[in-house]
Amino acid sequence: MDTNVGPDEMLIHLGPQHVAQPGPFRLNVKVKGETVQDSEVEIGFIHKGIEKILESKTYLQGIPVVDRACYLAALSNEEAFVGSVEKLVGIEPTERSQYIRVIVEELSRIQSHLLGYAEYASFLGFVSMFMYPIAVREKVLELLEMTTGARITHSYLRFGGVRDDLPEGFEAKCKETFEYVRKGVEEWGELMKTDMIYRERTVGVGVLTPDIASDLGVSGPPLRATGVAFDIRKDDPYLVYDDFDFKVCTETAGDIDARIWVRIAEIYESMYIIEQALDQIPSGPLFPENLPYDRRSPVMRVPEGEVFHRVEDPRGEMGFYMVSDGSDKPYRVKIRGPVYPTMQALPPLIKGTQLADVVAIAGSMDACTSEADR
């Protein structure tokens, strides 16, 4: 962006701390009157150093670290990390553990979308609306907590399996919770369809085209809202996603409204996947019998090699590139997360829009700054 401004232009810095940003980043916006002329995104205010931390930890010690790349996608992060190590070692998780992984990761997708919608509604001015999805999300977090022992950062997956089996009463609790979720989502959906102010602020605003999304590497709901039906669970299946009947949720408008509706549709689809998984889950062990490492030991030497493994996290394509030198720690780790490309889509999205719409557009992308700032 050219930072030179004319006599009738102004350069405004939104952030790095801003009430409508889910993490510190700065959006530099050049405006003429109330119209956005140009903008650029600045990240780098968190300095997590996740990748270098992983290179200093044993493989097992890395599991709780990847949880914190983005706590809303903790279990998907674990799947990408653990799956990479499993490919290097040559471990095939047991069928039962794969079903359990699908269940908890889809629950994680639901809670992430619920929080994303709650935050977005507050950015738009529906402050009281924040509380309704959050109340529903608490019920979903209770399901995760009774399974993993934690609400947000779980450290639940293990190489070849999962730490614990599903608890007693889990299926009944799921059924009860899903009824509560469906009722809540239907109520909000009716509000979105009928509220004139909401529709004026979202329909036709912040349109992302398929070409721009693809050029920038955007994935997940923002891409699917442009009509591109790309979902790693379908296009490059992992775990036992091939066993389930589910659709890739898409819209075609590419605007704020479309992005929100894709996420709401995915909440329903995730519940449907979990219901199928609970009906089909086989009995059996959580770990294969011929594990090439001692589960009681924190040290596991991984054969030399390199691998890239990707999963569909709540925000899109989450992939780990990992290099092993044969020791008990990864030699190199590089995370390809979905959020950095999503944040790079903001400048073309907000160009030509009103300054008052910038926060609404940015909120609808559901970015997690801490995941991009690794």
Give a written overview of the molecule.
The structure is a single chain. Helices cover 45% and strands 13% of the residues. By secondary structure, it is of the alpha+beta class. Strands 1-2-3 form a three-stranded antiparallel β-sheet. Strands 6-7-8 form a three-stranded antiparallel β-sheet. It has a two-stranded antiparallel ribbon with strand order 4-5. Helix 4 (95-124) packs antiparallel against helix 5 (131-148), helix 4 (95-124) runs antiparallel to helix 14 (358-364) and helix 5 runs antiparallel to helix 6 (170-194).
Count the helices. How many?
Answer: 15
Class per helix and strand makeup: alpha+beta
> Strand portion, in percent?
5-15%
As residue ranges, the low-confidence spans are none
Spatial order of the strands in the main sheet?
1-2-3
- Radius of gyration, in Å, reads 21 Å
Quick one: biggest sheet?
3 strands, antiparallel
In the CATH hierarchy, what is the superfamily? Answer: Cytochrome-c3 Hydrogenase, chain B
How do the helices and strands follow one another from N- to C-terminus? EEEHHHHHEEHHHHHHEEEHHHH
**What's the CATH first level?**
Mainly Alpha
Judging by the overall fold, what is the CATH architecture? Orthogonal Bundle
CATH topology: Cytochrome-c3 Hydrogenase, chain B
Question: How many individual domains?
Answer: 1
Calculate the terminal CA-CA distance, rounded to whole Å: 24 Å
Silhouette: globular
Question: Number of DSSP strands?
Answer: 8
Helical content stands at 40-55%
Mean pLDDT: 93
